[in-house]
Amino acid sequence: MAAIRVAAVLMTQTCDLARSEFWAVSPLNTLEPNFDRGSLYGGYFNTLFPYPKHEHFEDSLIDITELHPIRPSNVSLANRIASVKMPIQQLLSDRFLHAMGRRWGHAKDEEVPQEGNYRCLGCNDFDMPVQEKLFKKGEKFPDCERCATIRRSAQWYLLRKPKEKQRAAIK
Ligand SMILES: [Zn+2]
Rounded to whole angstroms, how far apart are CA atoms 35 and 149? Predict the structure, then answer.
């Protein structure tokens, strides 16, 4: 069996390393010269995390959601080429939770499955008044105007009716 050696970021938490049968790693990808570094370092890509040029690698990024299991016996700590400081670990951990745990929403051009008021998940992160839009079944979801200005895609989700309104509708 052939194996390829690549640089990767160890994603398993330090406290879990000793007792885990597998460790999770995310491969380090070298940035293309024309890659949008401003958006990457600005945090506009939900699942991408930058690693600036270092003695052992070029300007790179990882896709936080691209996790591969490896056996600890296949790597040795002697192969470690870099480690990140605590604030960066925390930032990565926050970004990981956001990327893996974020709720799901409809993108532009998807068909509206049911009539109702929708909000955009992407907008919820920002300190702005909440906006709701009524969409009818069968329509196509539009871009979210706010998110489009920062080149994020819309994530429309349906607002459920509170219990009182549901009950009122049944009576
Ligand atoms: Zn939005």
Answer: 19
